[in-house]
Please model this.
Amino acid sequence: MGIKEEIDKLTADLKVYQDKYYKEGISLISDSEYDRLSDRLSELEKAHPELMHPDSPTKRIGSDLTNDFPEVRHTIPVLSLDKAYSGEAVSEFFSRSIAKEGGSLSFAAEEKIDGISMVLYYEDGILVRAVTRGNGIIGNDVTSNIMTIHSVPLSIPEKIDIAVRGEVYISKEGFRKFNEAETDDAKKAANPRNLAAGAVRRQKSIEASQVPLDIFCYEGFWGDKAQTPADHLHILSKLKEFGFRINPHLAFFDSTKELAAEKLKNAGLEGEAYAFSDISEFVKEKTAERGSLGYEIDGLVFKINELDVRDRFGYTEHHPRWAIAYKFESPQAEAKLLGITVQVGRTGRITPVAEISPTKLGGSTIRRATLHNQEYIDELELAIGDTVSISKRGDVIPAVENVIEKNDEGNTTYRIPPACPCCGTELVQIGGLQYCPEYTCPDQVKGRISFFASSDQMDIDTLGPKTVEVLYEAGLLRSIEDIYTADFTKAAGLPGMGEKSISLLIKGVEESRNRPYAVVLSSLGVADIGKKSAELLSSNGFGSIDRILEVSDSGDTSALTAIPSIGEVTAESIIEAFRSPRLRRTIEVLKEHGLHLDSSMDEEEEKADQVLSGQVWCITGSFDNFNPRSLALKEIEKRGGRTVSSVTSKTTHLLAGKGGGSKRAEAERLGVTIVDEEEFLQIIGEKQAGSSSEDAQLTLF
Model:
């Protein structure tokens, strides 16, 4: 038998042994024989790496090479879920959805695993990258660590492109055994989720392989929509057929229990069938069963089954309109209220925050908790010194729930002071909330600037809240427009403002001038104009700021309400906001400084020569001109190139910066063209051959 034939046979045999053992609990050979075959395959692959299969079973072992976790842009929506805290709220979601569709619907219910959200991307049936949720748009590539999870298929039976969403978790038993084996108490994890999160981000995949990670998969997105199953049940059925591990505790709701059972049977799935009238009882049963499960769950997820309806319902900026998460009653703990801090937001909204004695809750130490507003404080009759019950609302946000014991210091119900704690302006009441009406209030100004510059908005490098604070106090930054008019070299010597920090700040400001129109629009901080609504406006006749100003001057709400998802109240709010002389001054200054306040400017930016068309690029290391590295990805994609997170036989070029490691070695092995930063600048026309690196930076920025 030749080398290639032996590698092929060992690979095929070991894949069968692994699948049987990890998916069915069946051992076809002894452990010692399995180890012998695995060692032999590893030996052959090291001697003949060109013959190694991309889904080789040896990838489960992990590597001791350091990962650099590059950022990857998701190709599918990776959003959060809207929340419900009662069976009645779930029933309302069902009724509301059916009424909106105007016809019959069915719903799947799955356990909400308390783990780490993950997206598995397959190309031609091979796992090419595993990406964390990140901010829902960009996540970290943790492929080498996820490949060590035996329940993650390294390949699937069909040569298709598919993205699969799942939840990486650790069972209660696996967590117990792992902590028992850890001799250093300081290194023991607080809970399974924390351990899973840490393992997914281990720098060496061989370390991740030693943590008992597992995964449940629950959604699939086909690259070819024509191949996509008609409903969610058949997606689950197909995922199961492909070898993905789906949660066996599936429930399905329809108008009658019999109809629900029939649809489960037609999809070839085992599950519990229910009628809509069973929802509240179902929620109670699942809540009671929570503690008996072999893994942690923090709720239940209810989804519309029909995919065409999902497409029609669409998404908000934060969550799909076709799903809802029922959250179990949050864990609670006792704490003493030490004080109340009043915060001023960028819109002037006043928010009281409880300062409490350090308290362990849900695996973390809580020192602060929200109090919402004065009405909430009055309802609790809350006073400083009281002993209170705190919870994590939705298992995330700490909140004061009630008073357990009144203080013995004689303190009465706390009252928010009548004046703004920052500027002293008398507060105004709007509905149940209080606001500082002074637009120039320092806390509001700093909040607006920080929001505008944040990574989710204009993404101005190094201009975070602390830097904004320093520059504000120095008088260099007193408005959004100052970002583009200030002389930041005058910040030299201020706290944290060294030569390098100032250079990065100036560079970040210059780069931000090229952000797309919709990003600039949402960054202005206008109520009701987030990222999604900014894109909606841009694509529905409001592709320039001048058009919005024109409609605001006329007061014509009908021009806005003609856009889907914009109602009369929202339209009036937008019109009022853009009538503000202060906002208009900001807009005029931003225009003068070349920011994209017309979508046609975006199109001009996209007209770069397609010099990288047909090429596939990967990136490794750090760069002088591309920080963060996602800037280099944008340059490649703008010029027709395709970007990938790992080096494969399909990769044509590797852009190698400082500190690149395993990717460079793999590129050399595969004969991939390796390009350094200076060569790349010449290729994309941002640097003339023979110019210095200083010249290159000036030319590029």
